């Protein structure tokens, strides 16, 4: 389903709108100011349950009717929420069994938001009823352009460890495993006397004496994600019954610090992939994280455009210290998402709240009002997005796929690992950041999806992989792709059972290497590599299966693994190759390794000046080059075209000011 009404045929612009916090006179000011800013859509009603159903079964829709009419009358499309994200006080008072329970068995009380248990039948019944009522009332409203089911599922209420979840977990397990023996085998319960005699003995992995059973924990994460997906689908069905033709979404959270849900399993159930992203100020490479998250979202959207549902114009309010965005950063951060495939730029929220938990969160319209630099910047962004109209629907073409799997991440982050600090995402992000610095776009893809068509595949610390996916990766290499596998990959199967006979288990034959032992490095420790670089975080005792097959590219020059291979390459008969890297190389060494793989694949790359990010979107006729300068000084941009931000015609390499952004349009040759 398309969503051009949200985007008014171009790049959509808007944000969450919470009219219940304001009087009707303010609503009228709001719509005028929205028009001034170029807003095309707003998300309404996310937290409106207590205003729409103030008492059980009693609905008050009149205020929302007025808001919908007002927005529609001003040409602003509505992404209408089911209002089910947070139950009202009467609901948890009448049905306290809906409250979630933490790992220690403590009930989490109402008083904030999302205080509901993912498997509560009562909550489901009440939420489905409200979603249905809202859908019935507004299905034919002219302002309605999209359905927004709940909000950021799992942001605060996962995992829940209550007895209802325990029972639902057993049902989920009974579906996953044919019998108790299969479950016992999968969980390795022969260890520590954990063998089950009855499914009823199985509990959620509540806090216990010491290390919990890792497969039990992993299955609980899988179950929890699926449980919320069931809730989402129940609410969705209630909406679709009344409104089958209006596109529907729920906002994902693809920021890398959030990993509660396996969105790969969710994405097929939304009409439009949408996500929220907030820059974390304390991250050392925060715009690399933004880029990574954008590429993850594009992967979920099957390579097509997606919606940035929320980000912030300036400060958030949930860090210990919340710096304001620099002048110009609002524009640059938004376009950084557009560069990676977002066709909608949304914020939390339109008007800054006067009261409540988020009154210190920035908004499109700040407390200072319309006469403010921030609002002028918001209006400027609206105008720029208007000029970027043609970008809508275009795609980012990437020659490289980096594999990204939330379940592999969960397993790698499980209890009692060789190193608790390094996982799927950390290594994937390092490689993505290095490629970004080399001007190479990468898609972040789940290993289940079609991997053909990529010149280069990167398998970063994919600790857990199924036999089938490992086979498909090997097949791609044998068919001519160039595959780089990094340390601690292919180690376990889907049950988190170690593949015996040498690591990296599932990839050992493909790579022609055999790892006998892992040897993580203590924080701060570094080992020298014979090629002049260094490795940190992780090393391994690597041996070659046969010297005729794999060649050593670099080896350890110091540390416990001195003299042994650190990086290897094996050329395959079909023209492809399989590379292995057993440590986390320093930036330059990593770029050198990636350059080798890219060269083997014939993929062009060129080191960009520090802080410069370049991404291209294309359609049949046009290429748009997004140049973003994250550095504190001007950088030289080696690109030309008509800059849709400044309006200038750029005919030769130019200097882009600190914090600046340009979008250069050029006809395709
Ligand atoms: C999101 C949420 C919004 C708002 C925002 C603040 O997690 O969906 O409602 O709370 O964060 O950054």
Task: Kindly describe this structure.
By secondary structure, this protein is an alpha/beta fold. Helix content is 31%, strand content 19%. It contains 18 helices and 28 strands. The strands form 6 sheets. It has a 9-stranded parallel beta sheet with strand order 5-4-3-2-1-9-8-7-6. Strand 6, helix 10 and strand 7 form a beta-alpha-beta unit. The mean pLDDT is 97. The site of beta-D-galactopyranose (GAL) has 10 residues, from loops. The site of beta-D-galactopyranose has 10 residues, from loops.
Question: What brief labels describe this structure?
Answer:
669 residues, alpha/beta, TIM Barrel, Rossmann fold, Immunoglobulin-like, 3 domains, 9-stranded parallel sheet, 7-stranded mixed sheet, binds beta-D-galactopyranose
Give the topology.
Elements: H1 4-7, E1 12-17, H2 24-37, E2 41-44, H3 49-52, H4 62-73, E3 77-81, H5 89-94, H6 121-138, E4 144-148, H7 163-176, H8 180-187, H9 214-242, E5 248-249, E6 251-252, H10 263-266, E7 274-276, H11 286-300, E8 306-310, H12 329-339, E9 342-347, H13 373-387, E10 400-403, H14 406-412, H15 424-437, E11 442-445, E12 456-459, H16 467-478, E13 482-486, H17 508-511, E14 513-520, E15 526-528, E16 534-536, E17 538-544, E18 550-555, E19 565-571, E20 577-581, E21 584-585, H18 587-601, E22 612-618, E23 622-629, E24 635-637, E25 641-643, E26 649-650, E27 654-656, E28 661-667
The structure holds beta-D-galactopyranose.
